[in-house]
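hey so i finaly got around to running the thing on Sulfate permease, MFS superfamily from Streptomyces radiopugnans. pasting the sequence first so u can double check i didnt mess up the copy paste, my clipboard has been acting weird all day
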Amino acid sequence: MRAGTGAAGGTRATTRFPHLKQDFAASLVVFLVALPLCVGVAVASGVPAELGLVTGIVGGIVTGLMPGSSLQVSGPAAGLTVLVLGAVGQFGLPALGVIVLATGLLQLGMGALNLGRWFRAISLSVVEGMLAGIGLVIIAGQLYAAAGTTAPESGIGKILGMPEALADALGSATTLTSLAVGAGTVAVVVLWQRMPGKARAVPGALAAVLLATAVSAVFSLPVATVEVQGLLGVIQPPGTGAFAELANPAFIGTILAFALIASAESLFSAAAVDRLHDGPQTRYDKELIAQGAGNTVCGVLGALPMTAVIVRSSANVRAGARTKASRVLHGVWLLVFAALLPSALALIPIPALAGILVHAGWKLIPFRRVAALWRGNRGEALILVVTAVSIVAVNMFEGVLIGLVLSVVKTAWDASHVKLEVVDKGAGPIQAHLSGNATFLRLPKILDTLEALPQDRPIELDLSGLHHLDHACRSALENWAERHTTAGVDPVRLLAA
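ok and heres what it spat out for the 3d tokens, dont ask me to read them lol
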């Protein structure tokens, strides 16, 4: 009887969870990938390391249980590191919970209003430019962290200050040791892909951090390590004083930047993950609601914001995950680690985490994409580069806005194809035919051609071939017709559609 009952129970479990074996194995892989990244993103963001684990746990268990994308994995992302670091520096750590909470509520609202699909309308060049700019700032900032020195606040300051920081490092054995640990970590991550297949079962980032930790401990290297406060010690729901910042316009702008960037990164990641598997595709509005729910919980806990993370998501797919159970279980493993082994974090050298983030920042820069765009569509390549440079030179929010404005202007320019054909038969009126879409963007060229026409001959301007004529163009053409004709000559005739 017992044997029969056990077999029946096993059959029922297999029926209810037919892919449990694959999902269990994939969850362990994703956990091992996520662990060093959660800690590294938190440290780079200027918050306690445990808060990165809290966000990873919420991303796995809360967001992971919700509908939207079945195989996409959420957690703290390198793409938001720069924004979080700036927000914490400007408004303080207690205000971070309010920012993340408001971000989550905005995402819930946008998802409920079916706005998730509209994020797919954002120019891919703007998103890639945003990620490239973030990558550059991350690399610059983490090079200072690897050296054990304080980085300048602005992105451009980080880059311009590198020569002086390098000169200072060459005169300090402690700084050179710290840099060596960071460089060694990057080297292990890069070279790990060339290891035999069995060795690659351990994620490169985890292997690099473990090796750096072991070397630092064995040789007692003078490098800084992660400060540990304990999981319960870092969870601090935002107090009433932090909500007072909502009256600050700069604070509201930061919330909008978080919501825009986190949502765009998550939904673009979803589109990329959908191309990696042939299972159920992402339902964008529900995925935005899932992200909003996760960020709302993170905000209540005072943790880091979350997005879908392509590194963890692709690892999940490659590891053979079939359902959302894999990402939920990865959150459970993070919770078990944070609850039982938090002191292990205190052994991790900060330069090793900086090396992990330098590699992650490098991966955010789409070098091949820029080269391909430059060959095929230089306008899009320019948008990508300008967005990236603007983020480095100004800040995240304004850099993205600059990219969006450029994208809209380019789209309007591309859409405003207009042809002006002038026919002069030598006798009778000169005939000018406009066709296509006449907008203010093409107006200077149109007026240059029309104003070059002789003023002592009758002119007919035929607008019947236009599909679109905006108000600025119409007004300018009417003004030109009124003032172009000289005395004694028939006035310019406008032949409307």
